[in-house]
Specification:
By secondary structure, the protein is α+β, with helices and mostly antiparallel strands. It is built from 24 helices and 10 strands. The protein starts with a helix and ends in an 18-residue tail after the last helix.
């Protein structure tokens, strides 16, 4: 399924669609470490790509991570269904399909939020591991196996590739891990969030209030015939009406949502209930903990859908505006539809349980056998459920209807990247952060310059949304942009720390009186796509203090160590555990039971 979704993107080229930008090589600039003017929204994502692209082509690295995220989302959800429901292979495949083949994944792909999907992929694994830790502490009075803790640490770090993913993962872990394990889990989460927490503290960007206009601009959106609540319940409703599959823009959205919710409804009772005979070999405490985990996931799904819907109402918008203007860092919560990701594990569990329920019902009606018989037709029910899930979103296939396709950068970009090798930040023209290049398609794309060049590229952070503009935090970038558009002097550019001006051709945007300023600069390179100018004179230093770079670098290294050591330790422990005879393992713990 992951290959079917991402097929076109896996060819030669780079992901360049709305917020998604991959380049051949990225660099550890101040902005990549979260120490620029803007809030650290892409930390530690940018630093990881900068380090990784020194070894592997950056475009290949991003595509590999995105493919792995979708694959792991499906696999993790199947494992979660196996552990919490004890379902066979067919219902596990249903759970995996719900996790991959849904509007949330489609819309976030179209919006370019590939790194958020790594956090999304970690959620079922975190739910699985947290439940195992809770069950172990409840049944054996122990804090849990080292391998389970290591796996949880690695998943929290993986989800922490972006601040939002980190929040989603932390909420999931803390909800399910149990009181006895809360302190250790909270400590692991803080370590996994160290890069963006450190960057926020050092840069001070997170302490600034956000533009209240962003609350309404990024609120969940009603899709045709559904309303806001119905759109969110169908796992859709992203704020950007252009970043949705075509099938979600017509009456088909209502029919697809009804079908999805019908599948979920068939298994709600089984998920919330006391369990089935397939759980009879569990210990009483293990059954109880699995039931608690299932119920908490269901209630989490309800909250994850209802709260964003309330946030789009009049009083909800007022409450959001109050928060972002008075609570530091609250701007991270303004895109409320992101949190619908927390509902997907419960949806997948209910669909898997419903598949088993329908299979047993068919068996009793057609074959006249007991509902608990091994002959129950869960395989046939699974085929039916899979067909319905695929039908609800037919245009997710092959790059979300072809929207995801690789892009080739013109040769001029590499010439510019090689030339920018002296002190001074880079200013860009036309004004604004988004571009429409001749080679990137019809959708706007985030300017690739910040991830292409060795020096920091100044960006205002202003976002054009729904016909308006949401202000950003880049105060110096705003001064530089205004100076260029007003035809200011080269000397003033140098005082503001600008050593380079890059003009990106063929894309709409304001140029103002910038010709007056460009005439004062030294041209270095020009073709139809990019023109590079060097600002003469002495360039004032505006780099982040060396101490801040060291602290931020240490936080990134701590995060990377948690990521690598967590998964490595979990893998070693898993291999070691497989060598232990099954008879030596405690039968009452759900970690050690086979699936039906």
């Amino acid at each position: 399924m992951a290959l079917i979704v991402l097929g076109p993107l896996l060819g030669s080229g780079y992901l360049l669609l709305r917020d998604a930008v991959s380049t051949p090589r990225s660099f550890l600039t101040d902005s990549a470490l979260g120490l620029g003017d803007a809030a650290p929204r892409a930390v530690p994502q940018d630093a990881l790509i900068a380090v990784g692209s020194a070894v592997v082509d950056g475009g290949l690295l991003v595509k590999a991570m995105l493919l792995a995220a979708l694959w792991l989302a499906g696999w993790g959800t199947a494992c979660l269904a196996r552990d919490l429901l004890r379902v066979s292979l067919g219902p596990q495949l249903v759970a995996a399909t719900v996790a991959i083949w849904n509007p949330y994944v489609a819309e976030r792909l179209l919006q370019g939020h590939w790194s958020l999907l790594t956090g999304y992929a970690a959620l079922p694994w975190i739910a699985l591991l947290a439940t195992r830790l809770r069950a172990r502490s409840a049944t054996a009075g122990r804090v849990g196996a080292l391998g389970t803790w290591a796996g949880l640490a690695g998943c929290l770090a993986a989800a922490g590739l972006t601040p939002t993913g980190s929040l989603l993962a932390g909420l999931m872990a803390l909800l399910l891990v149990g009181k006895r394990n809360l302190p250790a889990t909270a400590a692991l989460w803080i370590v996994s969030a160290a890069p963006w927490l450190t960057a926020t503290a050092l840069s001070g960007a997170g302490a600034e209030p956000s533009d209240p206009a962003g609350v309404a601009a990024f609120a969940a959106r009603a899709e045709p015939w559904l309303g806001t609540l119905g759109s969110l319940a169908g796992l859709g409703g992203i704020w950007n009406s252009t970043a949705v599959p075509g099938s979600r823009t017509t009456f088909f959205a209502l029919a697809a949502t009804v079908l999805l919710l019908a599948l979920v409804a068939t298994g709600v009772r089984a998920v919330l209930g006391a369990g089935t005979d397939s759980e009879s070999r569990w210990g009483a405490a293990a059954r109880s903990e699995a039931r608690v985990a299932r119920r908490r996931l269901v209630w989490l799904a309800v909250v994850a859908i209802v709260l964003p819907a309330l946030g789009a109402t009049g009083w909800g918008l007022s409450a959001g505006e109050f928060l972002v203007t008075r609570v530091p860092g609250a701007g991270l919560l303004r895109d409320t539809q992101k949190f619908v990701a927390l509902a997907v594990p419960a949806y997948a569990l209910c669909a898997a349980a419903g598949c088993r329920v329908v299979g047993r019902w068919i068996s009793t009606k057609v074959d006249g056998v007991s509902a608990e018989s091994p002959r129950a037709r869960t395989g046939g029910a699974a085929v039916l459920f899979l067909a319905i899930v695929f039908l609800t979103l037919p245009d997710l296939a092959w790059g979300v209807g072809g929207a995801l396709r690789p892009v080739q950068y013109p040769a001029g970009w590499q010439r510019v990247a090689d030339a920018v090798d002296a002190p001074g930040d880079v200013a860009v023209l036309p004004g604004g952060m988004f571009r429409k290049f001749r080679y990137s398609g019809s959708a706007p794309v985030l300017d690739p310059a910040p991830r292409m060049l060795k020096r920091d590229v100044l960006q205002t952070g202003e976002l054009p949304v729904r016909g308006g503009v949401v202000s950003g935090e880049g105060e110096r970038a705003r001064k530089v942009e205004n100076l260029l558009l007003q035809g200011g002097s080269a000397n003033r550019l140098a005082e503001l720390g600008v050593g380079w001006v890059l003009v990106e051709g063929g894309t709409p945007g304001p140029m103002g009186e910038s010709k007056t300023t460009l005439a004062q600069l030294n041209p270095l390179f020009a073709d139809r796509d990019v023109q590079l100018y060097r600002v003469p004179g002495e360039i004032a230093a505006h780099d982040a203090p060396a101490a801040n770079r060291r602290l931020s670098g240490a936080a990134h290294l701590l995060w990377a160590a948690l990521l690598a050591s967590g998964f490595l330790t979990a893998a070693i422990h898993s291999v070691t555990r497989r060598s232990v005879p099954r008879e030596a393992e405690p039968e009452s713990h759900p970690d050690h039971d086979n699936a039906d």
